[in-house]
Write a structure and sequence with these properties.
Elements: E1 31-35, H1 40-49, E2 53-57, H2 61-65, E3 73-75, H3 81-86, E4 92-94, H4 101-104, E5 116-118, H5 125-140, H6 143-151, E6 171-175, H7 179-190, E7 194-198, E8 211-213, H8 218-221, E9 227-230, H9 244-248, E10 254-258, H10 267-276, E11 279-284, H11 297-300, E12 304-306, H12 315-334
Parallel strand pairs: 1-2, 1-3, 3-4, 4-5, 6-7, 6-9, 7-8, 9-10, 10-11, 11-12
Helix pairs in contact: 1-12, 5-7
Length: 348
């Protein structure tokens, strides 16, 4: 069993099979893994737990092409249709991020049933949840208003345009209560909030979640929520999930948080709802388009807090990211099922 401090899920775990050897013969075969961004220290650590995995560090997709024919595994950022066509030995791709929408959409990935794709799901949850709650508190406590006064050097108790609110007793709807959503829900519950959520699977809800509905129930649940936290992956089913009709289902005066992907929200519909005052504010670590260009209407929309897709940043995230990466390298070398296997057809 994996130690509790190790992030990652063994749900749907699969062995990335290497031919001609597997099982007991696996460790006698040298496997080649193409990596990006690993330090000398990390490569040495990987070598100590997976001595039969030769890590080749590359800096670009062009450089990776030079090694494609020998690659048994590779960093997901290196994968292109051209690479796949040349990489006949490839049996494992690891995405260093949780989102895999680019990777699973590449021609050749869906067609290779023997290709195991893993990601960093579960790694970023604690830091992202801290960030989400920080943004929410900034909006609900009107901190930008008082920060502006501080910048001017003014001790001003002039009331902001919107009244500050307390979170206790309010309802948060977590859309997609997976790893990140659970972390946000846990923190919101600690603030005295009532938590409801949606998820596709039948996994039991944590004890701090009052009710979990299926995605088809989202529209009916929205009017209950004072805060809506979007935590679903970007798939064909979730792109533009929050269109004008869905946003109009939200409770008047509610807040929306998006730490998932910008394209899950229709940006024009969101701006219209903010300008009309139908929703109280938006906390966005992701946007559509992204990067958000200078002069875009979202920059000046009322009661919006925007950060540039950095919610996961932090030393803890780096530690958890490497712990998962190293453990999967060990499992790869030993012929054991890999953690965080992606359902390529589902897109996450």
């Amino acid at each position: 069993a994996q130690p509790p401090e190790l992030p990652g899920s063994d749900k749907n775990a699969r062995i990335a099979r290497v031919l001609p050897a597997d099982g007991a013969e696996r460790e006698k075969v040298t496997l080649t893994f193409l990596a990006m961004g690993l330090s000398d220290e990390q490569i040495a650590e990987a070598g100590s737990v997976a001595p039969n995995v030769r890590i080749v560090r590359v800096t670009s997709r062009d450089e990776a092409m030079e090694h494609a024919a020998d690659a048994d595994g590779a960093d997901g950022r290196l994968i292109t249709p051209e690479f796949l066509a040349k990489a006949s030995r490839l049996c494992w791709v690891h995405s260093p991020s949780a989102g895999v929408e680019r990777l699973v959409a590449l021609p050749g990935v869906q067609e290779r049933a023997d290709l195991v794709v893993t990601n960093a799901r579960g790694v970023h949850g604690p830091a992202i949840a801290d960030h989400a709650m920080g943004m929410l508190l900034s909006l609900t406590r009107q901190l930008p208003h008082y920060h502006d006064a501080q910048e001017r050097g003014e001790w001003s108790r002039e009331a902001p345009k919107s009244e500050a609110i307390a979170l206790q007793g309010r309802t948060m709807l977590v859309v997609g209560i997976g790893g990140i959503g659970s972390e946000i829900a846990q923190r919101a519950h600690a603030f005295g909030m009532r938590i409801i959520a949606t998820r596709r699977s039948d996994t039991p809800a944590p004890d701090y979640v009052e009710r979990v509905g299926k995605p088809r129930e989202l529209a009916a649940m929205l009017p209950e929520a004072d805060v809506v936290a979007i935590c679903v992956p970007l798939t064909s089913e979730t792109e533009n999930l929050f269109d004008d009709a869905m946003i109009r289902r939200m409770k008047p005066g509610a807040y929306i948080i998006n730490i998932a992907r910008g394209r899950i929200i229709d940006t024009d519909a969101l701006i219209a709802a903010l300008k009309d005052g139908r929703i109280a504010g938006a906390a966005l670590d992701v946007t559509d388009p992204e990067p958000l260009p200078a002069g875009h209407a979202l920059w000046s929309a009322p009661n919006v807090l925007i950060t540039p897709h950095i919610a996961a940043d932090g030393e803890l995230t780096d530690q958890r990211w490497w712990a998962l990466y190293k453990e999967n390298l060990r499992r790869f070398g030993a012929g054991e099922p890999l953690l965080n296997c992606v359902d390529v057809a589902a897109g996450y």
